[in-house]
Batch of 3 targets.
Target 1
Amino acid sequence: MVPQQAPVMERTSTRIIVDLLRKLGTDIDDSEARSSHQSLLDELQKVTILDLGRRRIGDRGIAALGRALQDCPVPRLERLSLDSNDVADDGMTAIAEAIGVGNLTALRTLHLSWNNIGEQGCRALAHGFQGIRSTPTVSQAMAKSFSFEFWNKKKNRSKNLGEGMERSNSRKGFKCVPHLSTIWLTGNNIGDEGAKVLSSAFESGDVPSLKVLRLFNNNIGPKGMEALGKALASGYMATLEALNLGQNPLTERGVASLVRAFESKRVMGVRELGLSAVGLTDEGSKTLASSLQAGYFSALESLYLHRNEVGKEGGVAMAQALRSGRVKNLRVLDLEGNLIQEEGAKELAKVIELGQIPKLEILDLVDNGAGGEGGKILCEALVAGNCNSLKWLALDGNSIGDDSCMALGRALEEGHLVGLERLYLARNEIGYQGVAVIVKALEAGRLPNLKYLSLDDNKLEHRSTIALAAALKANVVPNLQYLSLKKSWGGDQEKGASALVAAYTKNRDLKTQVHYDWPNNSYAAKAKILQARNSGTTEDVDLPMPYKGCFCTSFNFRVLSRRSSSKRIQRAASAGELSFSTASFKENLKRQLSRKPSIRDVTPLDHNFTFST
């Protein structure tokens, strides 16, 4: 019973801590502040995970937390999450001081993303990692059983951690965060100077166990990348496994510094590399490709390069590097929006056909201009290659056409993609013939794990919709959660809508959210669904909801599950007076709006290579 009660106790302590921090972040009298501070100290001793992310505590509240952490050792705390709390200089300085005095030696994960830390806060954090001079260590405090009051009197607190701090000479080999393995600093605008001071702490070996470093969206340029490259080449970051530098203006110069750091062979265990939207062009792609081909990234499992300018020459170079067989462990390849075009797609097809990336689980080639020929060769390669591990295939916006889709359908029908969970084929000029082959594979039960299927903005006509509706009605895809057929103009939309409604009324187990351009006069059909599903029951059913202007969405009918609500909607639908005017209805509708999940905002397929802890 104890292991089950412990998480509940920690959640209770977390709620109490949040309330105390919000109180301490306001103007209260001294006696109440002292009482709240003491209560906070007591609660901090109970937690191993303190998740305060997105709690709107504010900088003053986080500063109060930092002061509490300074006032006593917290030997059990392993994870501290402060993301999205408007942490600024004061809050970051207080937290950094708590680290610097050695009170958080058990810390393994520090999550500070989406705050206002900036250069000064990053400087304070770096000095905290290095340690504060003339302060009692945790081991000293615990050996003598110091009370909180004695600790408060004994501790020599710095007034400004960001300036003039010296490392402790008395500790020698002591590390303030010896077990810290994960640092999240996404979206904090630390800039080049912040990257430099942080790199100096890494280069000095002050974070010896670092495995995951996320510096996404921090305005880091070539100079900051050069400093980080020196830290990587120093040998003190040899344990690094995941590095995310996406959405930073690194340019070619910064990418070159990164590649040189890895060529030093001091960091050989990197499994995840994020370089999305960093200004990578074809020349930079060639430099990175040569490093891949030389084997400096032999452990690489996830490579994120979306929204760069790789181009067809860079795409060919990257594919040839993968073809060398030096990156056999690759599971995620994200090249979205890089315009590798037909030439790049063909080279990538050769890699897949030869089985050089047999563990691939996610392949994202959205908006790459592969065209009909490139798409066809790529889909044919899925037949020859061993792609049973593939779970995510995104080919949106490549204009691959029916021929490519038919080749893909054959790969599906022959069972080469039996593990597929997500298939995105929007904006590809696919018609009835292409969809028919996919439906045939669905009916044959070749996609038992499929959860998401997107065919938006194609030439489907009503025949395609009817065929897909028949598959839903027969329940041949039991795990399907999301089917999107938006902007698929052509044919008789009324017949398509009727077929989808029939699928819902015939298959009571259907939970798929269908996104379709519902005709305005399908209200009567919706009333039939309500009558069949919600007559006096409280069953939760996800059904398509018509909306003015043929806007496509889905709506959960939990709020309409009572008999009175159901009858009211039926009467309104029959009279053609279904209204969207009430505020509660609009609010519920907004909450149920869904979109195609992105490779960056869905739950990772395998926690073993996403390093989310």
Target 2
Amino acid sequence: MDVYEAAKQGNIDGIESAVEKGCDVNALDKYGKPPLWFAVQNGHSDACRILLARGACVEGQGPSILELAVQGEHTEIVELLCRHCKVERQHRCLETAISLGFHGIADFLVGTQIFEYQQSQASDIELLKKDGFSRRETTAFQQWERFIFVRRSEKLNLHRIFFDYALLLATKADRNAGLRLVNLLLGGEKPMADANCMIYIDEEIETPLTNAAEKGNLEILATLIEHPNISLTICGKYNWPAFLHLLASSESLASEKGRAIAQILSKESQPGSFLIDSKEARLETVFKNVLRLGDDALMKQVIDLVHGAAGIYILPLLIRANETNGLRWILNDDIAHASKPPPILWVLLCNFFQCNPSSEALETFIQVAVFLVEKAIWNRMILVCLNSRNFCFAKQFFYPLNEILPREVAEETLAGFSQAATDQSLVREWADKGFANAALWSAIRSGIWKTPAFESLLSCPNIDPDEPFPRERSSDTAEANKLSSLSGNSTGEKRKFPFRPPTGNSLRLPLDPGSPQSHALPDYQMQLMLLAQENKRRLMMARNEQMEMTTGKGILAWTGGKSPLAWAAATGNVELVEALLRSSRVNVNSQDAQKRTPLMHAIAVNDWQTVEELLKIEDIDLNLWDAEGRTAVFHAAQGGDLRIIQLLTETQKVDFSIRDCNGESVQDIAKKKGNQDVVAALAA
């Protein structure tokens, strides 16, 4: 048995035997851990004694072995190890003991009086501050509160840095829960903690004031602001003052108290600070909240504070406040290439101009649009809409084409469509680039298809109401058209096959159309062969599309490549089906990549009401084949819903002689399912 396994098991004889054979008790295993580490981890105090007696070192062994003993609540081992290490450099051990509620161990450590740091040099104290502490759950303050409150009648021989840490925990506890501890630590003539303390937590500076602002703890924040020694300009995480942290909390700004505190903090913030927002997400939140709040004074204060550090994200604020000098600085610095601002900022800005159409800032906004269009960052249609003052219609162009628009933007798009329709070149470009397809699906997804504006959208001749979402790429469309031409069908037409297979014939594996044998085949067999080849290609395309869906490319998973009508049928939305069918431009016989029709999708979910609505359309084709050669009645037989089967058979349009690609008839499918009622209904 090696010394590591012996230490893990607490085997004294094994440890002694290994040492007698010349084993180094400080040698590290392949994971970089000494034998003492395993003995401590498993709580074997006798094994620890033997190893220490044989020369095992406690200091300088990677992760603190003393802290490991504290984390395991091995009190006896903690007392044993303390004699062999420099405890004053083990400040995290005491923090761990208190934060985890191991107060017996904490009392022992405090009792050593080493953590008072009376004998420590100033440089050592600074080193401890920079070493900092680990990040804890927000509930850790409860253990500190309990520890301090129980012992507050005694003299706690602790350096102030521990009380500062407790103050940090209290200020960021959820829902002002740490207010009592804050009052205790900062109360009296000689406060236990420093209200302006700055401590590294996982290599980020934290302060009580910025912590409270970031968490939106307004009661604690108000207490800190009233403290006589507080510095309101102190910066914490991200090198942000409390002012910016508070503005990043939309919930705080929603309250009257939060806005009042923001006003106080804004007066103390120091312009010219250099702020860095490396992830380009935090300042975005601040700008969004300030735009929504609409307070010009706060807005200008934020601009002064972050000027030169926010990149293109600050543009909406600059325009809103008509700060043309700052705008020119950013554009000249060519920072617009760095990233695109989030769509919501530009939407909010458009909202402002809708309410203030005569604002002088509009000309500045249009200048920005010209610049960004020239840089190919914005679509030209944004500039067209701004020049025509159609702010409603402009909002959609800030979002990627493969994303569903937020409901409010989808509504605005429909509202602005009537004005946009007067510019036919705009509408053509809108449809050609796929924005019309996105608008149509956004209206469907947002549930705003009951409005007259939606009907107007469907009637627009530039829109194909049978397109899936997102709009097919031009290369995909060309390939689809090429394949469709083999059978004389294309998307958007009422699809009816120009032939029917003879009764009793089943499909065979097709020959190559260019082979000599193909010329001797009858015309209908040649067409069957072409159809089978088309099915094969479509299946391959469908598999490719499925792969694209899983990798975030191509059609989004929730639409499944369906047309709007097919999607409505597949989701059982009979009202949407009715609304779509009111438009003569919607193709009731459209087929998806698997060649399934809306009728097939409705049957698949046993939605007889939708089936009934679809069957009311006179030119609906019940005998279209899917990729497996099956018609609607095949799907009905598979589902076994007698009501749907009766609806289909009552039309007297069902061709029962059709066989699928496996040569099976619908009766064969029904018999396999074993539902005698379905078999009888099909035989009637």
Target 3
Amino acid sequence: MPRRKANDRAGPVKTRSREGCSECRASRVRCDTKKPVCTRCQERGLVCTTKLVLKWESEFVTRGQAFGRAGVWRKSGKQPTTPSFTSSSALSPDDQVWRPISWVEPWGFINSFVKTLELPYEIDVTDDGHNLVAVPAMAPRAASTMRMIGPTAPPPLFPHLSEVNQGHLLEYYIRQVCPRMTASTNVPSPFASMIVPFCSAASPTVLQAIQALGACAWSRVDPNYGAVGLRLKSQAIRGLQNSLFSAGALTYSSYSEIMVAMMLLCLYELVDNCDQRWTIHLKGAKELISSRRRQATFLGPQQDEVTSFAEQFFAFQDIMGRTACAKPALLGTDSWTHNKHKVDAWMGCSPELVSILADITDLSRTRRRLSSNSDRAALSLKTANLRQQLEEAVQDVDEGDGNLRTLAELKRLAAILYLHCALYNASPATPLVSHYVRRILRLISDMIGGGQLVGLAWPVFVAAVELDPLSDELWKDSDGREVHGRPVVLRALAAMSESSVLSVARTRAVIVQVWQARDNVLKPLSSNRLLDAADWNDWESFVVPFCTAMSLL
């Protein structure tokens, strides 16, 4: 019997239900869509669920199937329609238009997770800094510093020390660690020229601290030395504790040994994970220096070069870290008694510049406490004076030391940028900030290209956290392509992580957190919730909350 046409059928036409449950749709039967369980599922004891299934036209075309109702039988009798998707192979060469696909770098995106918004001040720092970013090819000088000491190594510089237990770690410290902690190639590193001769006459604790630091640095390229460094660190800490709790007054020689050992153990933490454990040694140094100054008449007014260097190390660490976190000062700027305009190779700038940075941080801390117009006028006058000092600062560098000269100028520019953000309420959108960020990152890019990677942590940090997320185009390269700020920063951090002895993992993690805060947060952050948001400047809102126990050596 022939099938009746739709016009001859009696009763309502049955149509598919778009709200049917998954079980009925899978069995290709009509669902009555009763809620919460349809009749069929209730009778059969099935789980009645409704799921949303996304279908993509390209997948159906690839399998040669029609997408939805495209190409199916129609009541009007018209020919089936062809799918809307047409492959490029069906087009003639004249009709094909090829569009260039922009290259996506590995650092093109920074992922934000729920934890980023729920716990915005927690910084996730991995153990291995150079695994955080894609590492480009190293410059010749950087690559040469990574070579291990093998059987063909040159004769030891200090044979009487290298022959002791773990003497090869001392040699690694001298040949590999010390050169990567000084920006100048013309000036010997004080970590070698001062500290190594001192340890030959000091207690075994100093030598153990040196060997622990060498093993920790070596473990970055050979993880087997991690356990060795940890064991030597424990021995050095026990020796340091015995010196601190030994009976009797603090003598000059014991003070020097304790300060040097604490400096080396502090460096161990900076090389290892760069977490807040390094601040334990900083706070201990503060107490020790205060105690020594109270006993100045007993210890005598004279101080040797090694002890002065250890005090300067902790004072420099305190000042540079405070620029990020805005904490109260632990150590003052009176640790430098020599020429204030002469650039120190291990600091990468002059003592005068370091003192100006300390003054900027102190003024920024007191800015919101001013209540009278006269106090605000005095603050404006001091700020203008500091700005003039920075713009006219003279940093003396020996002839022929171009790398050190460039680094000193780079830190001066970063200091000017920091002053405007901390005291003039400048932000990334301020034209002057954009100008200095562009100059700083251009110099950093040139230095990275030349293999100069020491001392860049603070300039990279200051420029990175003040990048404008809406306009970070810096310049055009030789091919006319725009160079953007965030890739430049991440490339610099990658190169520093690969060749620098100090860990940059925390520096990079904080920079990424600041970028995420600028991209995602609708209102400014602040570490002090009791303050009115109108009183926060950009630095206090987006930088300070993340920078507790920050080291920017």
